[in-house]
Amino acid sequence: MNDTPSPTSMPTPLSPTLNVLKAHVDEHSVKHGQFTLKSGATSNWFLDTKQTACSPDGIIAVADAVFEVFADVLDQIDAIGGLTLGGDPMAYGVAAVAATRGHHIRSFSVRKEAKQGGITGRIAGALRPGDRVLVTEDTTTRGTSLIEAAEQITAFGAIPVWMTVIVDRGGTCAAMAAEHGIDYRPLLTAPDLGFGYGT
């Protein structure tokens, strides 16, 4: 399998902020070897981006990247969250860092199954009906988890306006998000890390 980016997927130069995130992902989250992906495909590299999202310096790098990539709409974001477990560390960490910088963004999770008893449904956390939401995931290949989360957020009565991931390794999520009218902005892509999409 060829992991060299094709000419059509060559990355644009990264900002200093995104380069800090890339360096953390390269050092802590990229694994080399032989792996079978969730899709069933095989690859000689794997992303464990929770190693970035769940470490203190990593989540600061993620938050800094989110604040830069979404600088034009940051004050419009009411809540941040995604499908558990992939969206949780990013959502909670970014919301916490945002609070230290004067941005009040609530966080939440989308459960994989509805909870029975107590507060029912698939939304857990501080999401409110009418909230404008940034949907998160640590890594995406096809985009299905992001879309599933967006559908549950809509069913709850909130509005999934934006989507982001730490790394997009598949390159197909942008089209899916566009079909749902959602503004998709990955922080990093597979080509940014020196790999081809879908490899």
Structural write-up:
The chain is an alpha/beta fold and 199 residues long. The chain has one domain (13-193): Rossmann fold (3-Layer(aba) Sandwich). It is 32% helix and 28% strand. It has helices at residues 16-28, 50-53, 56-69, 88-99, 144-156, 173-179, and strands at residues 30-36, 42-47, 79-83, 106-115, 121-125, 132-140, 159-168, 183-184, 188-189. Strands 3, 4, 5, 6, 7, 8 and 9 form a seven-stranded mixed sheet that branches. A two-stranded antiparallel sheet has the order 1-2. Helix 1 packs antiparallel against helix 3.
Strand-helix topology:
Blueprint: H1 16-28, E1 30-36, E2 42-47, H2 50-53, H3 56-69, E3 79-83, H4 88-99, E4 106-115, E5 121-125, E6 132-140, H5 144-156, E7 159-168, H6 173-179, E8 183-184, E9 188-189
Parallel strand pairs: 3-4, 3-6, 6-7, 7-8, 7-9
Antiparallel strand pairs: 1-2, 4-5
Helix pairs in contact: 1-3, 3-4
Q: What is the mean predicted local confidence, pLDDT?
A: 92
Number of strands: 9
Q: Could you name the ranges where pLDDT drops below 50 across 5 or more consecutive residues?
A: 1-8
**How many structural domains?**
1
Helical content band:
25-40%
What characteristics describe this protein?
single chain; 199 residues; alpha/beta; two-stranded antiparallel ribbon; globular
Summarize the structure.
With 199 residues, this protein is of the alpha/beta class. Helices cover 32% and strands 28% of the residues.
